[in-house]
Fold:
Amino acid sequence: MVKNSMAMKIPINKKIAALILVVAIVIFASVSLAIWLSARSALSAEKYQAVFLANGQVYFGRAEKINSRYVRLSDIYYFQAKPENQESEGQLPDVALTKLGSELHGPEDEMLINREQILFIENLRDDSKVVSAIKGSKQKE
Structure:
């Protein structure tokens, strides 16, 4: 009789183990999907983003994730200090929003940025001063 009792418990334990495994897989898949969707939706295709780099440079443009190592930035602008107004003690330098592409080396208006160099990315509101300046610059073109 003891042998029969043990034989009955083994299938039940296997069923419980299989159920626990299935539940764990479903939970893992759900969490992975939620993380993927939140990261994907964080970059709005309709908005401009500010990309803050580890070297202190900030670029403004339209960011999209390419893969786990790179982010593509297009329609790029950045701040550049105006040379005629050098920074004096206690004053901030006078800066201009500059469109990427007018530099001496003639870069295209697209940049692949290593994710390890990115501190964070922010979506910009349509009423921000930077977005207003970009839209004003586009109207002049």
User: Anything to note?
Assistant: The chain has two domains: 1-42, 49-140. The CA atoms of residues 101 and 107 lie 5 Å apart. The mean pLDDT is 80.
